[in-house]
Amino acid sequence: MSATASISAVPKRKTFNPWWIAAAVVIPTFMELLDTTIANVALRYIAGGLSTAETDSEWVITSYLAANALILTISGWISARLGRRNYFLLSIAVFTLASGLCGIATSLSEIIVFRVLQGLAGGGLQPSSQAILLDTFPSDKQGTAMSVFGIAALIGPIVGPTLGGWLVVNYEWRWIFYINLPIGILAFLSCYFLVADPEYLKKERVELRRQPLNFDYLGLGALALAVSCWEVLLSKGQEWDWLQDPFWRIQTLTTLLVLGFCFFIWRELRVENPLINLRVLRERNLAMSCVILFCAFAILYAASIALPAMLQALFGYDALYAGLVLSPGGISSISMLIIVSVLLGRGVDARWLIAGGLVVLACSNFWMSLLNLDVGPWQLIAPRMVLTGGLGLIFAPINVAALMYTPKHLRGSAIALISLLRNEGGSVGTSMVQTIQQRRVQFHLSRVNEFLDPLNDHVRSFLHQAQNVLGHHSGDAAKAGQLALGGLDQLRQQQALSLAYFDIFWLTAVLALLLAPFVFFMKRSVAEKGSHVGAE
């Protein structure tokens, strides 16, 4: 009996309601995406708990992102050979185990090793869950499926800082990892009973088993080199002063990155069985969607990091209250995802929703760039909700448009690319905030200094009034003069820092607006009833 015949002879599994399957696969995806941001607010606590420098604790983030990015690119290859269901369950189990190991780590080196393991396991969750949703729902419900996935993809990074802040303030940093244990066990059991591979994947796996392994070790090595250099560059670039690094670390990493990336592209276009079939980018909907998603998540992460950092540095909020300002954004994001799923189901062209979402992103960031230091929390929550609403408007339509014309046998490579660029966009947004904030602070300090001289009437008036008030309370005129100058310097630093953060919001607004024309390079993207998404 042939292998194909043996598959057909196996009794078919019971078919479950697609919404049950959607709920099951979204849980581990949410858990993994939550971990991309939840540790950001806990770095100083991790450094203190493990008796290490706070700058060294950044490797907890960098190691996870590098491992996650690497495995995302080959998740399609692994899934095709192990079976998507088997790979998905294995990823959940290893991710949960690694989370527990991170929680009990006793040194920085230990937690970095466990974070690498966690990142390698987590990289298989996003593309697998997205592919499962696409195969579970019929073609006219693709928008609904992507909206379900979007809930996890957008809410995870939004909730991460809030949940992380609450855990480190009320408990300790180890609980940001322990919290994954019950979620991971629930996700594993749910997916074990509900998820099954479709017939076309089983047939594909049988065909692959008949062929030699032909694993592209050279391509994987080049990719690992490029991704590792990329993540270290983004994490340490500003600290090492980018290309002005006197120790040539940045210059060396950049050279290795370019060489590794170029060799990887050359290799993947020539080898018979590539890790990632880059020819899938010939489909212009997918190519444009990759560009837009990369930049959109850079905008999301830039705003999500800049806003709480500004609240803590200038408004006196702690990690928990800064996170609470971000949390209501989840309401607008989920609401928009529900609206979008209805619109896509009624035949609205996904391109118009994407364009509208980009305009909303630009408006929300421009709104935040016009704020000042006298605003209250509700005046910050409103533009934040507009921002996440814009992302909710983009996310499901862009996934539908990206995969609508992609053949099924190339869908694994397409989803891996989308997931990789979505994550790397977040890394770029994080690095962008650090660089712009520090450099624009210096710029604004120099500009403010131009007006702070003894001949300026406003400066003289401020110092005179402050000295009188402080002298009245302290009874020491000399000390009052020093305190007045110190108060003026504090105001100078405060204003320069606020202007630097507002510059970040302005730049992200411009970036969102510049992305809108890319939508017009895409083909019409309407999921019609009875149509088949992706050629066989």
Q: Which fold does the CATH topology of the largest domain refer to?
A: Growth Hormone, Chain: A
The CATH superfamily label of the largest domain reads: MFS general substrate transporter like domains
In the CATH hierarchy, what is the architecture of the largest domain at level 2? Answer: Up-down Bundle
* Termini Cα gap: 26 Å
Number of strands: 0
Determine the oligomeric state from the structure: single chain
The tally of domains stands at: 3
Order of helices and strands: HHHHHHHHHHHHHHHHHHHHH
For this structure, what is the CATH class of the largest domain?
Mainly Alpha
Estimate the helix proportion, in percent.
over 70%
Low-confidence stretches: 1-11, 530-536
What is the typical, i.e. mean, pLDDT? Answer: 84
Overall 3D form = globular
What structural category arises from helix and sheet content? mainly alpha
The gyration radius over C-alpha positions equals 25 Å
Q: How large is the share of residues in beta strands?
A: under 5%
